Amino acid sequence: MSTDSSYYVPASSKLPLAMAFGLLLFVLGSGYTINNLGNEDSNAHWLLFTSFAIIWGTMFFWFGSVIKENDSGMYSDQLNQSFVWGMAWFIFSEVMFFFAFFLALGYVRLFAVPWLGGEGEKGITNILWPAFEATWPLLETPDNELFPGADHSMAMPAFNKLHTWLPFWNTLCLVTSSGTIALAESALKKGNRTFFKLWMVATLTLGYVFVFLQGFEYYEAYTHLGLTLGSGIYGTTFFLMTGFHGFHVCLGAIILTIVTIRGFGGAFSDHDHFGLAAGSWYWHFVDVVWILLVLVVYVF
Amino acid sequence: MSAVIESNHDDHHHGPAKGFSRWLYTTNHKDIGSMYLWFSLIMLFIGGAMAMVIRAELFEPGSQIVSPEFYNQMVTNHGLIMVFGVIMPAFVGFANWMIPMQIGAPDMALPRLNNLSFWILPAAFGILLSTFFMEGGAPNFGWTFYAPLSTEYAPPTVTFFIFSVHIMGASSIMGSINIITTILNMRAPGMTLMKMPLFVWSWFITAYLLIAVMPVLAGAVTMMLMDIHFGTSFFKAAGGGDPVLFQHIFWFFGHPEVYIMILPAFGIVSHIIETFSRKPIFGYSSMVYAIASIALLSFVVWAHHMFTVGMPIAGELFFMYSTMLIAIPTGVKVFNWLSTMFKGSLTFETPMLFSIAFVALFTIGGLSGIMLAIAPADFQYHDTYFVVAHFHYVLVPGALFSLLAGAYYWLPKWTGHMYDETLGKTHFWMSFISVNLTFFPMHFVGLAGMPRRIPDYSMQFADWNMMVSVGAFLFGLSQLLFLFIVIKCVLNGKKATAEVWEGAKGFEWTVDSPPPYHTFSSPPSMETLKA
User: Fold this and answer.
1) Catalytic residue among B259, B302, B337, B410
2) Which helix (H) or strand (E) element contains residue B109?
């Protein structure tokens, strides 16, 4: 609902057009790059890099002008509420993106794989590969020559060996970091900037450790476990789900890094810190996705 | 309540910028709305030209004009363009123009994001259309791009198609976030949710659907990309995946998408029918609840598009019954429109003619939908021209007619000029006759077994197909008349009054025609609406 103050409508701006141009180059660049994978003569990746430069550059100036406008007092409470709604609905769209992958995993585990193995109402599909048996984690694929299954899965080990299991430490990192960022926010609200900065650094450290451990896990999977993108549906779902989650952790970490740098530069006040609040919601969101992911990808 | 529109500090004029940069850099909801509308009109003629090619090929049995490969590209791109390039952007254009005016807001909530949402659409469709000139030709796997047609057997341009779909989705998501935020945060004081105009309500729910399902589509095309280029096996049974999984994910997006293309139409038609019946809409709150129920049900009906794919019987039954439930809220809406007209002081200007045709012909599409919802019967109808007839009845005399009705209804407000009523009525009758000539016989050939998406057909379907093609050409011609009417209206139509239509209600009719560049510098009072 409207409030008593004015609603700031920005004057015309070149930023959206620059961003649209960046996205145009991104589509062309990624299309040509991917279609020319393995072709040494292709220069298409430069198009892609150019598009990244334009997109990141535009975002820098765009957020810069938003911060400047806010600092000069142009934003009313009502406009700030628009940012809150915008961020909330953006996170909802991200939730639905992950939902597609959870849906895929659920369908594969509950229907597709058992049917291929001859169980259930559509078990007739077993005639395609009569020797195939349905198991999960799926280490023997129906056609093991086309999709050589992994040697080992990432499933949770026995309880007393939990400390040797990377996802355990990853979960610890991410859940703790959700707590530290909440502490950072409450410290800022109380005006305690020292603790605010301290907890932000702690959050970032945990986030980066998570990304590092996840990278290490992929390295292990490829070099020692024989688990790759090409190892059938288990490798497919494992890498795509943890991969997109890891990508979102990276995005969240970039957001929080910028927030922290700005915090060290004296930005944010106890009542005006939407950049931090939005980053923190995003961080909680990747945390929740991770917990669900651990349950359906690793544990059960 | 003295609110001021703050322009840029060094730039205090409140009018539009001069020259072409006005359109490139604009943050004004009316400019952006106009760009959306012109974009979708241009795409309508491009997608329409593809339909003409399809109908020319099907004019007679046998291979006539184009190769089967090119025919497939025509069918695919006709569908993609009409869905993502015409109907959706046109409704977003209406939303941009009308929502701030109908709720008494100065502009959309996030104006720069709004311009970005628009400008990535021409980029996406430019790339999609450029695939016609690339090696391997344009996408040829149907607008539903089922795997493995769209993965293992796709032309190399599928990569560009995938990324185009990604940024079309980004455009829709950003546009919807903007719309939903505007509605939640920028209504005039006193306009509670249940006092919002129905068009605003319909877009509120549509935007929610878009934010919920466009990311799922993004997920689906991402899985395709991984399967094609990076060795994964989402849709490959040899690796433990399943091609049917693609259909589930696609239609989880696809069915809400169907309602994304019709709910705003419900909103537009509701306004027009109440204006030209000179009565408030019958059953306002039941209209709102009906839209909401349709939207919620749309998440649990997707597999009725794939009854013949080999689902467990429990699945067939569940999706059959849940689909039939949708007839109830839809029926509520149709009855409410009829009750609004009942004993009203009706006049039949062009927008009203299109709206009445909408109610009648959309209902035909709805009823054939119920026939298709019957799982055992669907085994006969599936992938025949009966399905083509069904969804064209809800999309052409449904969604497209509502867009035309809305355009005639609000053109005087947008341009400040009246359109030519005689030409408008001519356009209506030409469209009405030709649309039925085009799509009604498709029911017959479909029930008789003519399969869709095939460039040739058996001799016994020849007569009806010739008739369909004649209707289609006539319909295409009629839309050129619409273009002429719009241009004539903009250039030298008669001056329109502020109210334009006798009996029109809502904030948009309290301001001049055309409205000032920034409509409401201070939020209007709900008192001005009482008449």
Assistant:
1) B259
2) none
- Mean residue pLDDT of chain B comes to 94
Within 10 Å of residue B529's Cβ, how many Cβ atoms?
Answer: 18
Nearest CA in chain A to B518: A9
How many residue pairs bridge chain A and chain B with CB atoms within 8 Å of each other? 251
Helical H runs in B278-346?
284-297, 313-325, 327-341
Distance CA B266, CA B268 (A): 6
Class of domain B31-529: mainly alpha
Tokens 């085994």 sit at which residue? B379
Question: What single-letter amino acid sits at A201?
Answer: V
Report yes or no on whether pTM surpasses 0.90: yes
The percentage of residues in chain B with a pLDDT greater than 70, rounded to a whole number, is: 97
Residues B168-215 have pLDDT tens digits of: 999 999 999 999 999 999 999 999 999 999 999 999 999 999 999 999
pLDDT at position B1? 32
| Domain regions of chain A by residue span | 9-74, 76-299
Residue of B177, B286, B9 whose CA lies nearest to A84: B177
Contact call for B245 and A121, based on CB within 8 A:
no
For A76-299, CATH gives 1.20.120.80
* B19 band by pLDDT with thresholds 50, 70 and 90: confident
Task: Look up residue A297 and give its DSSP letter.
Answer: I
Residue ranges of alpha helices (H) inside B230-312 are 243-260, 263-277, 284-297
B238 to A141: CB separation less than 8 angstroms, yes or no: yes
CB contact under 8 A, A108 and B211: no
CA separation for the pair B355, B408 (Å, rounded): 11
Q: Which residue in chain B is spatially nearest to A5 when comparing CA positions? A: B3
- Phi/psi region, residue B180 (left: phi>0; alpha: psi -120 to 50; beta: rest), is alpha
The catalytic residue among B27, B69, B119, B143 is B143
Q: How far apart are CA B151 and CA B227, in angstroms?
A: 7
Average confidence (pLDDT) over B61-70: 94
Q: Which of A17, A31, A129 has the CB atom closest to B159's CB atom? A: A31
What is the per-residue pLDDT for A75? Answer: 92
Is B330 catalytic? The answer is: yes
What mean pLDDT do residues B386-403 have? 98
Of B163, B233, B523, the CB nearest to A236: B233
Two tokens, residue B361: 């012909």
Complex-level ipTM beyond the 0.90 threshold: yes
pLDDT value of residue B14? 57
What pLDDT does residue A5 have?
53
